[in-house]
């Protein structure tokens, strides 16, 4: 959340329930009106392009509504909570609501009010002060984030004053259920803005373009956002006008360019409209979906309230006894497709050679005290007892540099195998039962972390279960 440009008071106005107000120094000049009307972002693109208007919301009827409350909430889907967050301007009229078709949103009127900022929002996961929507993937340590995608389809109609459409999360020292208010960083991505909202010169223009075509700027940073947290504000160039957003790119940027530690906990996602005095508007969410490491949580008219689902998978043709190939890097499917031989998501990052390269039928990972690699299985593997990695190392003995995470177990590779990584291709086997791996999980994954020190190159020719 951002600061009222006309108020230099740096007092933290967070309420006792954990909702807070942030005051930042802005350099913007307000305009009487500047808005993108009825922005529909997300699924509409590619099927008729950018759709303007109210869509299905024209016939939707409200089944629940809360107005002008002390942070009242409505659970709008499994894992998603809508909040009547009026933390800065109690004189504004604000309502949150849920419709009979699964859509939801809020309206507000800050005309004829003084200063202060409000932030009606929907959130998934946790918040630093202890609130949680019960999603098991959040909070998650930053270095464990492999896949993180947000998709939103919303109608916005805002005028009369300064506003933005802002997604944010927090990076914390501890999960808030264990110790609240340990947040060190506040990370915001502006999807849209208007009414003179400004943060001055762009700090890092075109920092990256994600796989969905969104070009992201680092607009600015602040030493504090009203809490003690260091504050990053990113923005989508031109505003978000269609498609998904790869949030994992922000995580990677903060690690690679800002030195943000990998062991900090990422809270979840909050998405809402900050608005200032004079602004009047309404936002309807038709779709808001979040995918984290292979699990997708959905809300809105299409699936409104459906439970989280794992990434669809093709039924493997392998039978017990023949072995189950997870990935053999033979180009079918390609490593760049982020799909393994089980039809599940796979990926890597933070290596000296980026996300790794495939050469002569082997995945090459060059590490220097950093890097992660993950294969999603998303199925029970109780018919298999052993994980076999066919690998080689540039120096040999790389098992001491690698941490294995699978089925609730996290341990150095050297501790769960009696084999050593050689300089020629050879098998390194892990007895899953002896290692304590829960093989029955329907969301099972294999992860290798390279953050514990060491520098070398690992080649992986095949990962399989036998």
UniProtKB/TrEMBL annotation:
<dbReference type="InterPro" id="IPR002594">
    <property type="entry name" value="GH12"/>
</dbReference>
<feature type="compositionally biased region" description="Basic and acidic residues">
    <location>
        <begin position="1"/>
        <end position="17"/>
    </location>
</feature>
<dbReference type="GO" id="GO:0008810">
    <property type="term" value="F:cellulase activity"/>
</dbReference>
<dbReference type="GO" id="GO:0000272">
    <property type="term" value="P:polysaccharide catabolic process"/>
</dbReference>
<dbReference type="InterPro" id="IPR006311">
    <property type="entry name" value="TAT_signal"/>
</dbReference>
<dbReference type="InterPro" id="IPR013319">
    <property type="entry name" value="GH11/12"/>
</dbReference>
<comment type="similarity">
    <text>Belongs to the glycosyl hydrolase 12 (cellulase H) family.</text>
</comment>
<protein>
    <submittedName>
        <fullName>Uncharacterized protein</fullName>
    </submittedName>
</protein>
<feature type="region of interest" description="Disordered">
    <location>
        <begin position="1"/>
        <end position="22"/>
    </location>
</feature>
<feature type="region of interest" description="Disordered">
    <location>
        <begin position="297"/>
        <end position="320"/>
    </location>
</feature>
<dbReference type="InterPro" id="IPR013320">
    <property type="entry name" value="ConA-like_dom_sf"/>
</dbReference>
